[in-house]
Amino acid sequence: MQRVFSGIQPTGIPHLGNYLGAIRNWVTLQKDHDCLFCLVDMHSLTMPWSPEALREQTLASTACLLASGIDPTRLYNQSAVSAHARLGWIFNCVSRLGWLNRMTQFKDKAGKNRENHSAGLYVYPNLMAADILAFHATRVPVGDDQRQHLELANDIAQKFNHDMGVEFFPLIEPLIPPHAARVMSLRDGSKKMSKSDPSAQSRIILNDTADDIAQKIRKARTDAEPLPSEEAGLEGRPEARNLLTIYAAMSNRTLADVLSQFAGQGFGTFKQALADLLVETLAPVADETRRLMDDKAYLMQVLRQGAERARAVSEPIVSEAEKLVGFLR
Ligand code: AQP
């Protein structure tokens, strides 16, 4: 059985982009793969954070993932398993500055003020490579934004194998969903939907009520034209494309099919149909999330047991990597 690893940062409540780009696929994959799903709390320190918020968001994200259907035995938080930090350091010393300089997510997150960002944000992709390779995972379901980081992880694995003269780390295959791999902000169709966007109206989060969802869709930015009948008519209309893509992904239909249903109609009718569809799928997840969030003892128990399992899988792999680089034990 192939091993799958994927992670999510507890930097806020997971949103519709995380759901369609990652979580929904995790639920499918766990049926026939050996899966590990991780709240990557160490990555959450790469941007300014509050300890109290990190604690709360780690538990809230755990609740969201469980409510979405993730198997509790597959879930843990990164910092509880030392293999991540240990292999991450080795990879800091294998990865090249030239490789990291090309990472577009660093450029996007750091913006013009690079000098003031943490060193952690810069080496984030090295830790991400360690997250996956500490388990010899070969399949990684992610949104499109992570494609470049997975290419870098493969470069690191190959260089490690080459330098140590042994085929130790396997190559990783990204599993990027064919549709809605990049859900965009509801306020600006050129920006990806993100937990850290200052506008709460830009995203639907997995504990929004039915009213919140309907209101956010009603207020989502659109344009004045009716909906086109073909994809070519979405050229230069990123907000319309985004909403239609969300509709297609949520209903498991093609964009062409959805366009043919709504061709020529105004956004009023379409937005009502989209809100109904989202409420139907997400409102039960939100109800269960809120219920689980009240049971902190259970959430902590899930994380502790998941960490134990993750330690058992990663320990022999990372100990062997440490031996290969020359550490004495
Ligand atoms: N907008 C998105 N569309 C599709 N997939 C997405 N993912 C994130 N945003 C979108 C996928 O969700 C998984 C977990 O992402 P993450 O939380 O680890 O990091 P991120 O990509 O940095 O997500 P955010 O929401 O933008 O968080 P912040 O604001 O904290 O940086 C990944 O598989 C990602 O591809």
Description:
The chain is globular. A three-stranded parallel sheet has the order 1-2-3. It contains twelve helices and five strands. It is mainly α and 329 residues long. The two termini are 31 Å apart. The mean pLDDT is 96. 53% of the residues lie in helices and 6% in strands. The chain has helices at 16-29, 51-68, 83-92, 97-101, 104-110, 119-133, 147-164, 210-219, 238-251, 255-262, 267-293, 296-325, and strands at 3-8, 34-39, 75-77, 139-141, 173-175. Bound molecules: adenosine-5'-tetraphosphate. Adenosine-5'-tetraphosphate binds next to strand 1 and helix 1.
Give a brief description:
The chain has helices at 16-29, 51-68, 83-92, 97-101, 104-110, 119-133, 147-164, 210-219, 238-251, 255-262, 267-293, 296-325, and strands spanning 3-8, 34-39, 75-77, 139-141, 173-175.
Secondary-structure blueprint of this entry?
Blueprint: E1 3-8, H1 16-29, E2 34-39, H2 51-68, E3 75-77, H3 83-92, H4 97-101, H5 104-110, H6 119-133, E4 139-141, H7 147-164, E5 173-175, H8 210-219, H9 238-251, H10 255-262, H11 267-293, H12 296-325
Parallel strand pairs: 1-2, 2-3, 4-5
The structure holds adenosine-5'-tetraphosphate.
Shape: globular
Structural class: mainly alpha
CATH homologous superfamily annotation of the largest domain = HUPs
User: Which small-molecule species are bound to the chains here?
Assistant: adenosine-5'-tetraphosphate
What composes the largest sheet?
Answer: 3 strands, parallel
Radius of gyration: 21 Å
How many strand units?
5
CATH structural fold name of the largest domain: Rossmann fold
- How are strands sequenced across the largest beta sheet? 1-2-3
Beta fraction: 5-15%
CATH class of the largest domain: Alpha Beta
Mean pLDDT: 96
**Helical segment tally?**
12
Number of domains: 2
Q: What sequence of helices (H) and strands (E) makes up the elements? A: EHEHEHHHHEHEHHHHH
Query: What helical percentage do the residues reach?
Result: 40-55%
Question: Which architecture of the largest domain would the CATH scheme give at its second level?
Answer: 3-Layer(aba) Sandwich
How far do the termini sit from each other? 31 Å
Organism: Parasaccharibacter apium
Subunit structure: Homodimer.
Family: Belongs to the class-I aminoacyl-tRNA synthetase family.
Motif ('HIGH' region): 10-18
